[in-house]
């Protein structure tokens, strides 16, 4: 185990953690000796590459479970084709002390709001610190609260937006499933990589354009109603 950890550039403690999470297959045992081979080293290097591309260990575990078929996931996904393994989001997590979180949302960090933020997936606890999943979403929430929107209302809207975002993601995933992955058997991972490279900016452009048009329609009607009432 120590030799494998050294070769992979990680600590023995990290290697044990990966084993406990079943991220690497068990070693071949001869009595009390555990033997690790090149496939274990390749798996560890794949995990390292995925972590560098922003994947979480939970997401990596799902990938490994889904693509476990005798070959390393790096080979199956083609790590050279970064479009397959690179996350679509570019969000940067923000670490906060409880005091810093309270300063951002003065008087509104209640048990109910904390529970809601944890349930949505915005917040997670890491020792004595709190981790927010996205600096951009944290800044947006902070601005809305400072502009007078209650944090409870911000979180309720966030839950609704998350549901709509999941529905949009499923719509684009269905396109990928039906028209991209269906041809992967003949095109291989290179064809999938090229298609995802093209789809990534298109999906973001479509969502931004449709949301902008929808906001124009909704706000125009809302403002007309407000003006007629005043």
Secondary structure layout plus pairing:
Layout: H1 2-8, H2 12-20, E1 28-30, E2 33-35, H3 38-52, H4 57-67, H5 73-77, H6 82-85, E3 94-96, H7 98-104, H8 111-120, E4 123-126, E5 129-132, H9 135-146, H10 151-180, H11 184-229
Helix pairs in contact: 8-10, 10-11
Verbal overview:
There is one protein chain. The protein is mostly helical and 230 residues long. The chain has two domains: 2-85, Multidrug-efflux Transporter Regulator, Chain: A, Domain 2, CATH 1.10.1660; 94-229, no CATH class. 68% of the residues lie in helices and 7% in strands. The strands form two sheets. The chain has a three-stranded antiparallel β-sheet. A two-stranded antiparallel sheet has the order 1-2. A hairpin with a 2-residue loop joins strand 1 (28-30) and strand 2 (33-35). It is flat, with a radius of gyration of 23 Å.
What attributes does this structure have?
230 residues, mainly alpha, Multidrug-efflux Transporter Regulator, Chain: A, Domain 2, 3-stranded antiparallel β-sheet, two-stranded antiparallel ribbon, 68% helix, flat
Question: Could you name the ranges where pLDDT drops below 50 across 5 or more consecutive residues?
Answer: none
Distance between the termini: 75 Å
Q: Spatial order of the strands in the main sheet?
A: 3-5-4
Pairing-aware structural class of the strands and helices? mainly alpha
* Succession of helices and strands: HHEEHHHHEHHEEHHH
Total number of β-strand segments?
5
> How many discrete structural domains?
2
Look at the structure and give the mean pLDDT.
Answer: 82
Cα radius of gyration in angstroms: 23 Å
